[in-house]
Amino acid sequence: MALKDIRDLRDDKDAYAAELEKRWTALLSYRYIGRRTGSMDVGAEGDNTIKVRHDFRNPTGGLMVAPLAIASPEGGGRSDLEVVPNPVIHCAQILDPGHDVRRIEVLSENLKLGRQMGFSRSRIVDADNPERVIAYTEGQGVSIGDVPEGLTKMPESPIEVVDSPDLPPLWKVFGASRRADGHWALPELAVEFASPDAALHIGPQHVVLETAAVDAAGDLAGTDHLQVQTWHVMFLARGKVGPFRVDTDAVLGADGRVGVRMLMIDEGNENRAVTSGSVVFAIVR
């Protein structure tokens, strides 16, 4: 069954607020990685820290980019209580793989808020040593609709994940799989993976894009000892139906690094391209 777009409820504040809380508390992305959202959640103000778990790390022990990207969504500085936000661009540069980091802190900054467009950036640091910079992220978002006035913050709905080497990989939690045709894909859109406007959320997108890119780079380089250095994603259109297939092409750089381009296709919506990305990996010797 197709999910309903919350924008259809804008003329009924009570119904809109109830639906927003239902969607927000069902959304898996932030809850599963442990990202509290002060702009949306009651009691979360000022806590921008996230515990680093085993499932945030690649085979070399370095940090994956997907948890960092989800932790700093860079939606342009506006929350779902102010507008109906939609991502446009997200990019990240990992400066330190953080092998011994136990917690990260996301220090965000709004750069510009226009009538529809917004621009933001974040510095991700070691929460126990804030002078140590782990990554930079920045991005752009757009408002695709107004919301009723007077919406208020909502109760948190956390997921307590006990850290363990036996945690399932993020791609499994977010519903991705590698198909018989060799493509990584997400299934048809479900409420726990959807934003309130009934589109595929950034969380599962970052996860499956990184997973597919690692696979493609590993096949080319002959090793899974890879560390993301740069990450760039453009959200071309709202993913509405699914399954969402990821196409990849990988190249070896002259300096031994590996580059991969990714393109996500909404197969259930006339094979529409919804997200494009590129990543550069260092081979860890």
How would you describe the overall organization of this protein?
The protein is α+β, with helices and mostly antiparallel strands and 285 residues long. An 11-stranded antiparallel sheet has the order 1-3-4-5-2-8-11-10-9-7-6, with helices on one face. The chain has 5 helices and 11 strands; from the N terminus they run ααβαββββαββαββββ. β6 and β7 form a beta hairpin. The chain is globular and about 55 Å long.
Main attributes?
alpha+beta, eleven-stranded antiparallel beta sheet
Blueprint (SSEs and pairs):
Blueprint: H1 13-26, H2 28-33, E1 49-51, H3 65-71, E2 83-94, E3 103-113, E4 117-126, E5 129-146, H4 170-173, E6 177-178, E7 184-186, H5 202-221, E8 226-235, E9 244-252, E10 258-266, E11 272-283
Antiparallel strand pairs: 1-3, 2-5, 2-8, 3-4, 4-5, 6-7, 7-9, 8-11, 9-10, 10-11
Helix pairs in contact: 3-5
